[in-house]
Specification:
Helix content is 15%, strand content 30%. It is built from 3 helices and 25 strands.
């Protein structure tokens, strides 16, 4: 069982599902953050030992001086919306970076980004606010990712990839060097992106990746 540092700072988790479980565990592994509540609907009464509370009670934490928060919601658009609402209410989004990941000193992480165990973010890469770099994902040199992206477990972005807001790169997918990906693009698990996917909201999959049927 992980030992929580006495110097850890209280943080409110927005989200109470499976992804929130991993975020709670990652917070504890850093020794920097102590989750005090998971805000949202849940099938559990607690998430990894952290009590679940209704959204209506979130601002009560501000009154108690707990203003740091992380948005632990897998859905990109919902995460972005909840994050904007939390900021408007007075919360400050923080980054949670697993000590078992590697993040280059020159990489830039936007506020509210979570980097899970085994992830690698290389030199001069940029990940926008509220991004998820999930377990074992790899973002290579000079990639530039927009807001609220989700790089799923063991996905690989080779160097100089540019991706817009709310992009989803599925588990085990690969995007080769220099590709450009538009806002809200969905790349299915295991896909290999070898051509630009610039049209907003496009869904691609396969090897090589091609547009998915809407049926």
């Amino acid at each position: 069982m992980q030992q929580q540092s006495a110097c850890a700072t209280d943080v409110v988790i927005f989200g109470a599902g499976g992804h929130a479980k991993v975020v709670v565990d990652t917070c504890r592994s850093t020794g920097l953050w102590r989750p005090v509540a998971c805000i949202g609907e849940s099938r559990w009464s607690d998430v990894g030992g952290v009590p679940v509370e209704a959204e209506i009670g979130a601002t009560g934490w501000l009154e108690r001086g707990v203003f740091r928060a992380i948005i632990a919601i897998g859905n990109n658009r919902i995460r972005e919306e909840v994050g904007a609402a939390a900021i408007a209410a007075g919360f400050q989004l923080v980054n949670v970076v697993s000590p078992f990941s590697y993040v280059s000193q020159t990489a830039v992480l936007g506020a509210g980004t979570v980097v899970m165990a085994g992830a690698v973010i290389q030199i001069d890469a940029v990940v926008g606010a509220m991004g998820i770099v999930n377990t074992g994902a790899s973002i290579d040199h000079e990639c530039h990712l927009g807001r609220a992206v989700h790089i799923a477990p063991h996905a690989t972005l080779c160097g100089n990839v540019v991706a817009g807001d709310r992009v989803w790169i599925g588990a085990g997918a690969t995007v080769i060097e220099g590709m450009q990906i538009g806002d809200d693009v969905f790349v299915a698990a295991g896909a290999a992106v070898v051509c630009d996917v610039r049209s907003t909201g496009t869904r691609v999959g396969g090897v090589p990746a091609k547009p998915l049927s809407k049926n």
